[in-house]
Amino acid sequence: MSFSQRMGIKSLEKALQTDSMDKALRNGLWNQIRRCVLLGVEYNARTGRAFQTYNYRMVGKIWSEFFRERCVEIREENCEAYVARCYAFITEGRWNDVYDLVEFLQQSVSNRSDRAYFAECINGVLRAERSAYRFTEGLLRPIGGATGNEGLRMLGGFAG
């Protein structure tokens, strides 16, 4: 508990985020996406050193398959522009569209243990920032008490 919470200046608990995302949730999602999906480590055989770089394949997949934009070859010199678009989308996009991207990324991670790790990291942010959603069986689903269309979606049914 922070000083401000102990003194009653700040609320002990923020409201559950059901149809919105605050800045802290967006930043937490971005940080995990960047760390778990967008960044990779490459090894330079000539120097014998490892260095951090963007996962160009995943950045290209986001650009062409999620944003459905024409994709040129992604290289070191143009990758930052693509990553900046992802960042802007996460920090400024509609809350439900951001969750669509998070789900797309989880499903796009190639190996099962990496998908599980990504879901675990994202769930940590969702829990800490009081989101009403969690990864369950590879999909973001409402936590407890879903009714109506949300309940049908949670059970896998169609709600139009």
Distance between the termini: 43 Å
What's the helix-strand series?
HHEEHHHHEEH
Name the shape in a single word: globular
- Gyration radius over CA: 18 Å
The residue fraction in helices comes out at: 40-55%
Model description:
By secondary structure, this protein is of the alpha+beta class. 54% of the residues lie in helices and 12% in strands. It contains seven helices and four strands. It has helices spanning 3-6, 23-38, 56-66, 76-92, 95-108, 112-128, 148-154; strands spanning 39-44, 49-54, 133-136, 139-142. The strands form two sheets. It has a two-stranded antiparallel ribbon. The N and C termini lie far apart (43 Å).
Please tag this protein with its features.
160 residues, alpha+beta, two-stranded antiparallel sheet, 7 helices, 4 strands
Topology:
Blueprint: H1 3-6, H2 23-38, E1 39-44, E2 49-54, H3 56-66, H4 76-92, H5 95-108, H6 112-128, E3 133-136, E4 139-142, H7 148-154
Antiparallel strand pairs: 1-2, 3-4
Helix pairs in contact: 2-4, 2-6, 3-4, 3-5, 5-6
Question: Can I get a quick summary?
Answer:
By secondary structure, the chain is α+β, with helices and mostly antiparallel strands. It contains seven helices and four strands, in the order ααββααααββα. The longest helix has 17 residues, at 76-92.
